[in-house]
Amino acid sequence: MDNDWAEWEERVAAAWAGFDDYAEEDAAAFRAVIDALVAELPADSPVGFFEQACAWDSTGHSDRAVPLYREALARGLDGYRRRRTAIQLASSLRNTGQAEQGVALLTPELVLPPDELSDAVRACLALCLADLGREREGLALVIGALAPHLPRYQRSMANYARLLVEPEQPGQAGGGGRV
User: Fold this and answer.
1) What is the CA radius of gyration of the chain?
2) Residues 43-53, buried b or exposed e (16+ Cβ, 10 A)?
3) Most exposed among 10, 49, 75, 136, judged by the fewest C-beta atoms under 10 Å?
4) How far apart (Å, rounded) are the C-alpha atoms in residues 112 and 61?
5) Average pLDDT, the chain
6) Does residue 83 contact residue 115 with C-beta atoms inside 8 Å?
7) Please, where are the H alpha helices in the chain?
8) Burial grade of 93 (CB within 10 A; 0-12, 13-18, 19 or more)
9) For the chain, domain boundaries
10) Which residue from 104, 43, 50, 108 is spatially nearest to 81, judged by alpha carbons?
């Protein structure tokens, strides 16, 4: 089964690698490719719901993706795909006017051990916060996520990000020292 699963994963990856080859008017054709791959999985597979949600989402139908992402989570999607689902579901919720649900979904992700998706969590959460009129919090998240990637000024930018949402204490230097 492991070889079959690896081969299926390769075919899904190949389908997604070719996504940009589809014209906007061919969105249904792309979704049909994903649906055919999902049809090879057990009907209750959370991975199938995830892949179909991604296909709807990527072709401009966040409203159709939301229930599929939720179903993938409800059926026990785990690991890397679970975290991707949290990010993508939050984005879709934001796109459908439900940014507060996106904030609720992503906030717990901030305390998980960091991984390659951590910055995406922060970026999507920042967008949700901005939609709710909480731009300073969103900006603090984005600057905080960017700071470790800078060749210099990491400490200063991390402090500036913190100060966007925490009041400065008397006698505290705003910039965090030498830049």
Assistant:
1) 19
2) eebbbbbbbbb
3) 10
4) 29
5) 93
6) yes
7) 2-17, 27-38, 46-58, 62-74, 79-95, 99-106, 118-131, 135-146, 154-165
8) buried
9) 2-110
10) 50
pLDDT of residue 174: 53
Q: What angle do CA 168, 169, 175 make, to 5 degrees?
A: 50
Residue 169 has pLDDT above 80, yes or no: no
Tokens of 62: 């966040």
pLDDT at 179 over 50: no
Kindly state the helix (H) or strand (E) to which residue 25 belongs, with its residue range.
none
- Residue 167 φ then ψ, to 5°: -70, 145
Dihedral, 105, 109, 110, 114 alpha carbons, nearest 10: -160
Tokens of 179: 């830049």
CATH number, domain 2-110: 1.25.40.10
Chain segment 85-121, per-residue pLDDT in tens: 999 999 999 999 999 999 999 999 999 999 999 999 9
Q: Which tokens go with 59?
A: 């072709």
- Dihedral Cα 99, 100, 105, 109, nearest 10 deg: 90
Distance CA 146, CA 101 (A): 25
Q: Quick one: tokens of 78?
A: 């785990």
Please say if the pLDDT value at position 170 is more than 80: no
Contact call for residues 175 and 169 (beta carbons, < 8 A): no
